[in-house]
Amino acid sequence: MTLLEAISNAVANQDKVDSQSDYPIPLSHDGIFANLKPKLENPNLGTLVNPISGWGISESDVEVIDLGKKFSSKLKRKLKDTNGFVKDEFVKMLKQFLEKIGEKVGISEAESEMVLGDQAGSEIQILVEKNGFLMGRDVSGLVLKGCISLEMWELVEILISNSLVDHSSYSYLVSNLVEKQRSDLLCVVIKEASDLGATELLSILKYFLCPSKEAISTMAKVREEWESQAMLAIEKVSNTELSKKSKVAEEASILLMVAHDGFSTSELCLHYLLASRNVDEVMFASAVSKLNGNEMGSFIRYLSKWMKKYEMFPQAGPCPKAASKLGLKLCNWVPELTDITKCLGLLIDENFSTLVLYSDLHEELKSIARVADGLASESKLSCFVANVVESLKLGAARN
Amino acid sequence: MKRGGRSYVTSPPSFSNDAKKLLVCTGNTVSVFSAATGLQITSLEGHTAPVTTLIVVPASSPAQKILCYCWTASLDGTIRHWDFSGPELLKTIDAQLPIYSMVIPSLLSEPQQIDKRRELSGKLVAYVSVEDISVVNQGSKELRGHIRRFNLAKSRIPRGDTLKETAEPESIVISPSGEFFGIRHKCKIHIWDVPSGGSRHAVSRKMTLHHTKVINAFAFHPTERVIAAGDVTGRVLIWRGFGNRKLALGNQKKKVRAMVDLDNAGVRGEDDAESCTTWHWHSAEVNVLNFSSDGAYLYSGGREGVLVVWQLDTGKKKFLPRIGSPLLYFMWSPDPTLSSVVCADNQIHLLKMPSMEILRTISGIKPPPSLPRMYEGLASTVAFDRSSGIAALCTENYCVQLYNLLNDRGISEIQVCERNHQPGDEITVVVTAVALSLDGSVMSTTEVKLPEDGIGGLVSLKFWASEPDSKTFTLSTIVYEPHRDAGVSAIVFHPTRSMAVSTSFGGDFKIWVCNSDKNQTDKDSSWICHAVGSYKKKPMTAAAFSGDGTVMAVAAENVITLWNPDKNILLSVLGSTLTPITKLCFAGKSEFLVAASHIPRPELSVWNTSKLSLSWSYGLRIEAVTSAVDSSAFAVLAVIPKTFKTDESKENIFRGRDGAILLFNGSDPKPVSIWTVMKARGGSISFLEGDKSQLRLAYVNGSHEYVVFDPNSDESHERSAVDYDGLAGLEETGDAGYTSLYGQLPDYDKKRMEDVESLGTPFVSSERPWETIFSGSTLNFPPLQKLCAEFFESLMEKRTAVVE
């Protein structure tokens, strides 16, 4: 059997195989070179190559790996028992495990009493942030499954934000978040994941374009975030002490106002998807081609709103300094006009034959065409003015 | 283990007295080459540090030309006396200090003087340039270079008389007559005369010549009091009549006094010389300067790689251009028709004089090219033909040198981009990658022409086909801009078929196939593009074929993707590393895939492709990866982290070593064997498996020195890679028997082919001239009357009987 056949079989059986690596964490070289010694009694210092011996995996790595294996097998047994496994037990197991592997590597942790309730959650979050990279891909995958089944969403957010979710786990994660209608965590996934596939993108698009009534309630958190950032921008403009930064704050407040006003809660979540640099164009086109009529209509209306916004507020533009200077991080997640037009082009390219059949969308498309014509003619006129200004500058410089 | 690839050009070589041998300093040993064949005959081994001086004892009479004695001096602090025909070590003298240069003037004096001197004084005097290590240990800025006088008759030399101290040790130059010796020091030349007579405490007298620029080289005339010097700007200065005041002979003192008041032309200040002439042809510094044996000509050479012959009386010039590398040394042999020139690219050319034709070349391994900063660490400049032990090494001047690692010999050289050598510092063309197929029949190179002010950059991908007989390559395909304007990051050949993949930083990879596979003919060996692939427009940084050739792994920055190379189908996404991957390699024919990444977090990871999961990983910076063909073993060249270089407890292991070779078996993260190495940065490793019974590992370090060893043994004794037994028969190479008398017999098959081809020539009828009238020149139209008659006859079906 050739390697091609072996890999094809592995791909076909990828969901069934629950393979566990023998060495899930990167092995450290800190303790290895200290134990090396020459293999010969009197090594010649002038030779190009000298044999040595004494290479061994450091004890701390071996112990961390063993702890990971034990925790992994124990957690697998617990996850199969759907009735008896409760949140407190899971938190206790995870806390013990993270504290132990932290001790092995030398990360000091002050011993503290077990605190139940909300404080227990915050403590486990700190431990995941500190020692999570030592879990390895297999253990972090299991921990993710446990958090999802027990609905510990704060811990899921920390796993996503700290890049502890493996590439192969995103499909499972997105499908569960859509099923349980965690809109805020889906936005975090869009922000942090660097390798989303077409299936995940399609699930996210369908979820946001035609949300259910229960889903809208969980999106309120996202709207609150946008509102707070917009209010913060307005406050910074009003603050006279920041006179040097007032121009940046003014631009940021206009941009955030444009992004917030007039959009529904689910449409605010779509901002992240359009503004993301990690979403591949080919994958996005593949996802867009599978939308149905209602979803396509929602998408076109959303894009139409953006076109009108940019027509109404031409001074609104990208504001990259606001995130670093003023702490307005959502300025990085406002789609630009190029993002809007590119997305619109993909949508029309992929679904042209279907769009012809939906007569109720024609009016919306015509209005988009009018806005586009207006923007195009305006840019043409602006080019003429810019050329004249440039010529005048050159003339002044020559004199 | 076999060691080779040493530098031939760190110190000047010497000819033997009969001009049939050339003695070359190669690191710690002296290699003896045959001038007739250019092959190594024997070597003098014993020094434990690089040899810096080689002096062949000259013959005092024609009958003594067969004598083979020489003196060597080394940085190990010893001076040794050899018989290099044996070869045999005769005597060892411990000078206790590193010796950078040595001259023995009495060996060059007249025969009768030698006899007198030995009878009177009973000693052999040497002048040496040493480094006083005790000053270095004190950490001060005192002068460490000393010129001292030693008595070679004693086996243990005391401190000796010190003639001069300089900041660094300088090379000593001696006149061919043995009367004078000197050193250059910045803008000055210091000259001493050799004391004559039998006085034990005779003191050398000294004089100094001055110049306005730093002097690079100087030489003494064989008979006259003339010194030639070359400086950093390319000028050649000729001082005539030096030392008539300060170094005058006893009986000339009165006559010279009258000349003190004269104004000497061209002489600077109050230097003791009659005149000074300046010649300027070289555009850069002069490194080579030597007089001919009769004193009529001066030879100069420098960084532009041209040997210039000046006629001393008239200043007329003759040239040997396009040597291809900066010149380092030029020396005569006792045979007036033979001389040698030594170049910085580790080549020694034997010249036929006076025509200056290059008879043959002793090819050492050429040094690695100097790459622009953006290509450091990214270029793969060494490739191996593991079946025959030949390495393809990128060198300066846009060349790839084919070097046989098993017998330490240069085979041939390919100039990837045809340009002359230029001494400018600006690099305009870079060969960024070289790759060889597994059987060594195809080579691939990529070169980048760097843009000037942002205009004119070009990337070229070239395929070269091997000539079966001469072990050289000919160009078969050029692909301009294979990935548009993006650079090529890797080229990998298929293990069993004529297929290759090139990856680019622009986000795609291309699969190339040879036309001979498709057309079933051997004539067309050009390569065409078979498929194009990409993964989310990520920069493709590395690629590898599996051992059976059915799977191709491509690294899309930090994501590993698996492809079917025949159908160009993405099979799976294996996983991702934290940093972009720089090297990929399947471990033999197993399912394990080795990946190495560099910046910012170095990592060595091994993946199990049949389980689509990570097997194990280390946080190590990896310079090179290689795997054996028929097992799951692989070896990596790792750079030792800097934290351990300063650890004094491990000084014995890691002193002077910056890397380690680790031999692994696929699934076990504990290495089977480990070796520490020198100059791992820029190095490369490969398994060599010519004979299936012997698996060997070759390591080429950052300076293109190499060692070939058995990874399953602990032997660390190094011996030269030169195969002495096979060389005896090579000197008798030549045609024999029928061929030598009558030449090669004609090839019958070719003759038949030609006959068949001639029969296929289309037959043109001479009865219808209008059918071929337009295939010739327009000036040769036949007259219309003739044409019309022929035409109408063909239409009317002319009756042959009537004409007859």
TrEMBL record, chain A:
Domain of life per record: Eukaryota
A Gene Ontology biological process term: rRNA processing
GO CC, alphabetical: nucleolus
Family matches, as PANTHER family: F6A14.6 PROTEIN
Listed name of the protein: F6A14.6 protein
Originating organism: Arabidopsis thaliana
Gene name per UniProt: PCP2
TrEMBL record, chain B:
WD repeat coordinates: 208-239, 279-320
Record keyword Repeat present: yes
Domain of life per record: Eukaryota
Annotated localization: Nucleus, Nucleolus
Keywords recorded for this protein, A-Z: Nucleus, Repeat, Ribosome biogenesis, rRNA processing, WD repeat
Gene3D superfamilies named in the record: YVTN repeat-like/Quinoprotein amine dehydrogenase
The WD repeat-containing protein 75 second beta-propeller domain, residue ranges: 400-641
A Pfam family hit: WD40
Protein name, entry field: WD repeat-containing protein 75 second beta-propeller domain-containing protein
Upper classification of the organism: Eukaryota, Viridiplantae, Streptophyta, Embryophyta, Tracheophyta
